[in-house]
Amino acid sequence: MIDLQTLIQNPLSYDFMQRAILAAVIVGIVSGVVGSFVVVRGMSFFGDALAHSILPGVSAAYIYSGGAAFSMPLLSEIQDESLRLFVGGLAAGIFAAVLIGWLTRDKRLKEDTVIGIVFVAMFALGIAIISSDPRAYGRDLVHILFGNILGISNTDIWIMVVCGVVVIGIVVFFFKELVVISFDVGLARTLQLPTEGLRILLLVLIAVTIVASLQIVGITLMLAMLIAPAAIAQLVTKRMHHMIIVAAVVGAVSGVVGVFISYHLGIATGPAIVLTVTTLFLIAFSMTYISERFSPAH
Amino acid sequence: MILSKDPQSSPVEFIENDRCALQVQQLSAGYAGHRQAIHDVSFTVNRGERLAVIGPNGAGKSTLFKALAGIIPHTSGNVSTYGLDCRTSHTLIGYVPQYEEVDWQFPATVFDVVMMGRIRKIGWLRFPRKVDRDGVYSTLEQVGMAHLSNRQIGQLSGGQKRRVFIARALVQETDIILLDEPFSGVDVNAEDEIMETLEHLNRTGITIILSTHDLQTASTRFDRLMLINQQLIAIGKPEDVFTPSNLRQAYGGAVSVFQQGNEMLIFSDEHDHA
Predict the structure, then answer these.
(1) Angle at Cα B25 formed by Cα B19 and Cα B31, nearest 5°?
(2) Distance from CA of A172 to the nearest CA of B (A)
(3) CA-wise closest residue to A225 among A247, A244, A203
(4) Smallest CA–CA separation between B32 and chain A, in Å?
(5) Which residues of B touch A239 (CB under 8 A)?
(6) Cα dihedral across residues B228, B232, B238, B239: positive or negative
(7) In A, which residues are within 8 Å of B116 by CB distance?
């Protein structure tokens, strides 16, 4: 017999579960918003690459907590571990985003080629850094790669809130420009908008979203949070701002459902969230397929 | 004639060029040596004129249009509209991209796409106001698309798709519209539909510049033709442009024209009219 008490209230009595749910909601919303641009621009490979590229920054920041194998002058100034991981990851992410943007600016190299080179190199560098500390390599690499929602601190929550507000604020205020460069960069140039600056801004927004979401789903599963809610939203909407709103709701709902599933089944939270959102995608896809197939118009 | 780069300093010259909508001087664009690059192209287009740009595949028609619209940089030369340098006032030229360059699955309605033409008028950090929405609806009326404003762009017919982008160009408050191959990939009815829209706009004073492979339409429904192949080969009335030496220079014998009384027959070996 399903009982709301054991299903919902009991898990919520734990502090770590409250933080996990709050974090999953914030990350779900921000990933849905930013992911909508990733989906309509066909940048999923870039999103995946960028997620992997933050590893060297996170690794360098991480191994500081357990007796540094080598010294990083700027990162060591930051005492709080959550903030240090965030700053390290963000620095690496923005570096990779700008590097990819710069290498592809004149189209001498195709974008996916550049992404392939930068992404694997950064990821390898990250593994190299973390492998210099055998303890971290054995145990904590898993958390970075797949997320560790139970280890979320109050600082993590604050970082997510601030990132979420900043990212969504920028998307709202630059919405029409970001949509135009995504739909028709030729029009943006005709209207003399700073297309390169706007493109880099979008890449940085993606980087911030990924780093802020790191604790929830980890590097390797991040792509699903960016792509799946937005893909569901694209199936059921026909305007960009509707798509963004639906994607944010789907992201938040799958985050919460995933956290509860992970609690009750005793499985890792990142995969639980990703499998939830994938299930939602399959349902949405089947429903739109069926309604198109059997609608009177056809 | 030399056109001053700064129209404010020479008002006399500006008045002299009053009939002239677009003035292009020694324009070069595209990667040098690249097949589609254009070199040293000069011409003028009068206000309210209909000009068809023709030439073989890879002649640089798209490169020319993109350079005129400011989508790709000029390597040298000048483009001015009504005496104003286009590098500082590109919003005066509307550009309708080729069909293949548009993502028709993009989540945007007819209204949304046309509104994109307004964003410079709306300005940074601002949202569309009533005047912008009214502008969008009135241009949609002009091209006969107002009743479809809520339709997702992928759900439109070929002719309707072109008309949405014509409306988007108009909403920039331009009176010069460039259309890159608007007839490629549409059937005869859609081609007529597009031409009727353009002729309607033309009667209200809009200058139409269009590239096409359809030499028949180009020679019968436009005031002048411009034949290019990397360079300007000829510009003028069809009978002046379709001379054997011009055609040989542009198409290398793949196109021939026979004149018989008032009728002109055009034979083309080029099968790139998709």
Answers:
(1) 140
(2) 9
(3) A247
(4) 15
(5) 107-109, 112
(6) negative
(7) 176, 179-180, 183-184, 187
Nearest to B51 by CA among B243, B221, B255: B221
| Whole-number Å distance between alpha carbons of A244 and A153 | 28
Count each helix (H run) and each strand (E run) in chain A, helices first: 15, 0
Contact yes or no for A147/A218 (Cβ under 8 A)? yes
Q: Residue B26: which H helix or E strand, with range?
A: strand B20-29
> Residue B110: which of B63, B144, B85 has the closest Cα?
B144
Count CB neighbours of A46 within 10 A: 25
Closest CA to A51 of A227, A174, A266: A227
Tokens of A241: 């701002």
Residue B17 has pLDDT above 60, yes or no: no
State pLDDT tens for residues A188-241.
999 999 998 999 899 999 999 999 998 888 898 999 999 999 999 999 999 999
What's the CA gap between A266 and A11, in Å, rounded?
12
Q: Which position has the token pair 């985003």?
A: A97
Q: Is B69–A186 a contact, with Cβ atoms under 8 angstroms apart? A: yes
| Rounded Cα–Cα distance for residues A271 and A216 (Å) | 10
The predicted-structure confidence for B122-157, as pLDDT tens digits, reads as follows 999 999 999 999 999 999 999 999 999 999 999 999
Euclidean distance between CA atoms A190 and A205, whole angstroms? 25
Torsion of CA A233, A234, A238, A239, to 10 degrees: 70
pTM of structure: 0.91
| Residue A107 with chain B: CB contacts under 8 Å | none
Question: Cβ(A96)–Cβ(A107) under 8 Å?
Answer: no
Record: contact A240-B69, CB cut-off 8 A: no
The pLDDT tens digits of the residues spanning A27-62 come to: 999 999 999 999 999 999 999 999 999 999 999 888
Is A169's Cβ below 8 Å from some Cβ in B?
no
- Provide the 3-class DSSP secondary structure of residue B154: helix
- Could A187 and B168 be called an inter-chain contact, meaning their C-beta atoms sit closer than 8 Å? yes
Q: Note whether B241 contacts A: Cβ–Cβ < 8 A.
A: no
A255-273 pLDDT per residue, tens: 999 999 999 999 999 999 9
Whether the predicted pLDDT of A4 surpasses 90: no
